[in-house]
Structure formats: C-alpha cells, structure tokens
C-alpha cells in the first residue's frame, strides 16, 4: 500500500478560515436546495395533500428500497431564471428491488407540474444518464404538459423525450411509467412509449385531448374517465398494463415490475472497501477562499479514495498535474488532479499518456479540477503549448472509459475542456461550492476587455475615458464572477449538482456503482491524430 501523507493542520488559522468560508457557502447552498424541496410553496402543497396525493419526493421514497440512498441530480435546475428552482421535476438514481434505476418525478405543486425549458433540459439529462449507464428509467408522471407561455422553447426540442423512451427500450433498457394524474396531449406519449405502464384509479388522465378539446374538434360530449381514466385504459384501450387502486398501490406494483425485469449489472459489486485514513470533515478547510492560492490535491485524494492508498504516476514530471491510481469504494480509478493551477506542456503530455494507459487497462477516470487553464506567453507558445494542450483534449475526447469530473476550485479556459468539462460528456459532473468556471477569471476577462477597448479607441484616434473604463471593469468583473459561480452554472444544467465536499466519496461511489451497470471498454486506438 502507498498511503498518502497529510500536511493538513486543522488548528491552523488558514484551515479554520477556509473551513468557515466553505461552511458559509454550504449554508447558502442549503437555502437554495430548500427552495427546490419547497416546490410550488405552502398553498399548492396543501392543496395537493387535500386531494389525497403524495408529493414527488414522497412517491420516490416509497418506490425505493427502504434505507437506501437517493442520489438526486440537478436539484438547482432553473436557478437564476424566472422559473422555480428545481424546474418542477425531481430526477435521480435510486435502488428499487435491488436494481439501480433512474427515476424522474414531476412536481405537480409547481405550475401543475408543467415542463419549462429547464425541466426539459433536466429530463433529457436524466435520460442521457439512463442511456449511458443502462439504468432502467421509471417516470412518475403528473404534469400539465408544456408550460404554455414558454412553449416556443420546448415544443420542438421536447419531442426528444418520447424519442428517448423508445430508444431506451430498443437498447434493452427498461422504461416504466407510473401515472398519478395528468398525462395529457404530448404527455400521453410518456405511458405510450414506455415498456410498462401503471395507472392510478380515478386519478390518471391520459388522453390526447381533454373533453373541451374533443367538444371543439368533433362536437362529441365526453368526460375524463371515459376518455383517459385508469379503468378505461386497463380494461378497454390496453394502454395500462396495471390498474392501481391508489398511489401506494401503484408504487408497490412498480416495485414488482422492476423485480421482474431481470435487469443485470455488467460487473459484480466489489464488496466493502476500506475507508480513507483521514477524516472527510477536513475537506472543508482545504480549498482557499482565494482561488489564486494553490492547494495540494493529494489532500483531497487522501480523503476520498479507499484507505488513502494512491500510486502516483510520473510524480516528478509535470508536477502541476497529479496523476495516479487508486480504488474508490472498490472500483479502480485513474485520477487526474490539478496541483498548481496552470497546465504546461509537460502536464498536457503526461495527461495524454495517462489517459491512454487508463484506456488500455479499462480503468475509469476521475478529473479533479482546479485549473486556470493552459499556460500563455512567448516561451510556452514557442514550446508548443497549443499542440500539447490539443493532445490532452484529443485524449479526453476519444477516451472510451467512463469519466467523472469534480470541480473543486477554478475550472477556467481550455483547462475546463482538457479536464473533461461538461462538453466532453463525463458520465457525471459535480461541483463543490468553492468552484468557479468561465472562459477565464473575472479580473483577467475585465482586463482583456479594457485593453481591447483602449486599443480600439487608439486605432480610431479617440481619447480613452479612464473613468468609464474603471466603472466598466468593475461591472464586467462582477458580472463574470456571478456567472462563474456553481449555483448559476448548476441552474443552467452545466453540472449534475453542487455537492458538500464531505459527500464526495459517497457521491462518486454511487456514480461508480451506477456506471458499472453497463459494460465498457477503453479505446485501444481510435484517437485522433496526436500532433507531436
Ligand atoms: N402551462 C403553464 N402554466 C400552467 C400549466 C401549463 N401547462 N398548467 C397549469 N399551469 C398553472 C396554472 O395556471 C396555475 O397557475 P396559478 O396558480 O398561478 O393560477 C397553476 O399552474 C396550477 O394549475 P391548476 O389548474 O390550478 O392546478 P390543477 O392541479 O387543478 O390542474 C392541470 C392541473 C395540469 C390539470 C391543469 O392546470 C391543466 O389542465 N393545465 C393545462 C394543461 C394543458 O393543456 N397542457 C398543454 C399540454 S401540451
């Protein structure tokens, strides 16, 4: 074993201050998560309960095996927009009858569970996760369909929801729809395209057009039950496979359906693993509040991998990027973690080599971000930093082993790409509250804009207004800062959630377990042309 050492002194003033700053950020995060939990608010929750209905998360809880975790995804979807935080949809991974499943549940307390542009993004992301990891998809349905005022943003791309359901089915990934209420118009295709359908008596309403629309279209008089009730679909149309007497009966029947799926994981559970030697609580004090101050990512690795056991690869070369092998909850992982912030040519080449090794050995990769990007300057340009950065980006892009990304601190510029940012399709990507991500740091960006404006004024022979420049710089800096923050980025679905650093090992363990449902094989070749 190669157990990592630690230099963390929990009594030092720096550690304490950093811990305090992180706790303050976590308190802010909790307040935003509480908004997602509150859904449509007191009034609508009460009305929902008075109707004898369960809330979205209560439905999920009854569906899952008792005392098993639920890894909720994208809880901050819609943050910073005009829509309710959480985007009227709950998504996540949980265990049903011993099978890890991807669960989505409409929140009918938020605008009747209608889907807005962020709900759509969140649902599509959930489907992507189900696909990549071969997780059965269970949709707990009760929705007013498209959020009508924002229909232009969702009607056309929203067709992908139904396409995904049938593509999952075609790929042998089971889909189950449990209908608790409205599932009308386009929404009717959720049960319509699912492999298994359960409907709740006198609650499910599944029709292409409700009574008023039918009256308008054909003049026919009808009612909800005869057009789309559970009993009608179970006895007459055949759209419902199972008729549930109430919500709990529906969830019980959903569990029975999953129990009979014969859905098998590609890899056996590795069994219990030794926890890290150091207390994860200490992760709160490791990231400096000022991201310009570097920190040693080995301190993080030591608190997330099994037994703090880490075999570093090329420790003496390209030292601004730490690479090495470990196991996490028993699953082998190759880790790439930024150490000094900047990526130089050596780090880029080391990363490309390391990624190829992981592919040869079929080992998933974990990227721990704290980078300001690739080094700039004459010496580095002449040394081929573009070629070397491109090598790393090529390796990340064409790697076929599953990737996980955690944004701990900075994730700026092309460094975000090389470290497997969102566009590089990591299976999962999470951020710590201390993370920041943007094309570059706010100060640098404001400074660049100012230089460009100054040069433009000079080229036109105009005087430069220094006072206006200072005001503009301050404004731009503030704007970029707010757009770099994890809650803002999570709101836009650029990650799968902002997590407490102390939960990192657990979250990654749940992800690795989900990942090992699907078989994978590293790329033995098939990389693009490595520009040497
Ligand atoms: N788009 C935008 N807002 C919607 C909505 C939708 N599709 N469906 C409901 N809402 C809003 C309502 O306007 C209401 O807002 P308010 O409280 O500010 O007045 C709130 O959500 C709750 O709706 P309400 O009708 O009071 O709830 P309900 O539980 O009694 O009924 C529905 C829910 C979904 C059955 C009903 O609202 C409905 O039929 N909506 C329209 C469905 C539709 O035609 N969708 C288009 C399909 S593509």
From TrEMBL:
Which ranges carry the CoA carboxyltransferase C-terminal domain?
279-514
What are the CoA carboxyltransferase N-terminal domain coordinates in residue numbering? 22-273
Q: Which Gene3D superfamilies match?
A: 2-enoyl-CoA Hydratase, Chain A, domain 1
Annotated Pfam families: Carboxyl_trans
Identify the InterPro entries for this entry: AcCoA_carboxyl_beta, ClpP/crotonase-like_dom_sf, COA_CT_C, COA_CT_N, MCCB/AccD1-like
Spell out the protein name for this chain: Acyl-CoA carboxylase subunit beta
Which species is listed as the source?
Answer: Streptomyces composti
């Amino acid at each position: 074993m190669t157990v990592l050492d630690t230099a963390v002194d929990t009594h030092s003033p720096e550690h304490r201050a950093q811990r305090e700053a992180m706790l303050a950020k976590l308190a802010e995060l909790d307040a935003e998560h509480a908004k997602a939990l509150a859904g449509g608010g007191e009034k609508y929750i009460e009305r929902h309960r008075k109707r004898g209905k369960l809330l979205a998360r209560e439905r999920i809880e009854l569906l899952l095996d008792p005392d098993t975790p639920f890894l909720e995804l994208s809880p901050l979807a819609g943050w910073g927009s005009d829509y309710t935080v959480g985007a009227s949809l709950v998504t996540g991974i949980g265990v049903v009858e011993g099978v890890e499943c991807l669960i989505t549940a409409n929140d009918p307390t938020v605008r009747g569970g209608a889907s807005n542009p962020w709900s759509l993004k969140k649902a599509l992301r959930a489907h992507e996760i189900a696909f990549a990891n071969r997780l059965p998809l269970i949709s707990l349905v009760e929705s007013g369909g498209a959020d009508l005022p924002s229909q232009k943003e969702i009607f056309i791309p929203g067709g992908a929801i139904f396409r995904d359901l049938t593509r999952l089915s075609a790929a042998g990934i089971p889909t189950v729809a449990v209908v608790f209420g409205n599932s009308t118009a386009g929404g009717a295709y959720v049960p319509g395209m699912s492999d298994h359908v359960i409907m709740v008596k006198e609650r499910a309403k599944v029709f292409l057009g409700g009574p008023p629309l039918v009256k308008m279209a054909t003049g026919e008089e009808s009612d909800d039950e005869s057009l789309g009730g559970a009993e009608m679909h179970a006895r007459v149309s055949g759209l419902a496979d199972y008729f549930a007497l109430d919500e709990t009966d529906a969830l019980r029947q959903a569990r029975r359906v999953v129990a009979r799926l014969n859905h098998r994981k590609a890899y056996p559970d590795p069994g219990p693993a030794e926890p890290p030697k150091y207390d994860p609580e200490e992760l709160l004090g490791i990231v400096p509040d000022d991201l310009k101050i570097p920190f040693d990512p080995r301190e993080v690795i030591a608190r997330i991998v099994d037994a703090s056991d880490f075999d570093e690869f090329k420790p003496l070369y390209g030292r601004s990027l730490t690479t090495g092998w470990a196991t996490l909850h028993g699953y082998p992982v190759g880790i790439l973690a930024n150490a000094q912030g900047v990526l130089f040519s050596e780090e880029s080449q080391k990363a490309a080599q390391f990624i190829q090794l992981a592919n040869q050995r079929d080992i998933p990769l974990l990227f721990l971000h704290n980078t300001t990007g690739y080094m700039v300057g004459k010496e580095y340009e002449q040394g081929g930093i573009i070629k070397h950065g491109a090598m790393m980006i090529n390796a990340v892009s064409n790697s076929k082993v599953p990737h996980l990304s955690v944004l701990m601190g900075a994730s700026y510029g092309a460094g975000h790409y090389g470290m497997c940012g969102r566009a590089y399709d990591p299976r999962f990507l999470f951020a710590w509250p201390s993370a920041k991500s943007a094309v570059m740091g706010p100060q640098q960006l404001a400074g660049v804009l100012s230089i460009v404006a100054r040069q433009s004024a000079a080229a036109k022979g105009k005087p430069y207004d220094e006072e206006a420049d200072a005001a503009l710089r301050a404004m731009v800096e503030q704007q970029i800062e707010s757009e770099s923050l994890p809650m803002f980025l999570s709101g836009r679905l650029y990650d799968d959630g902002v997590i407490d650093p102390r939960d990192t090992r657990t979250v990654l363990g749940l992800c690795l377990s989900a990942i090992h449902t699907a078989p994978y094989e590293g790329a033995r070749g098939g990389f693009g042309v490595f520009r040497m």
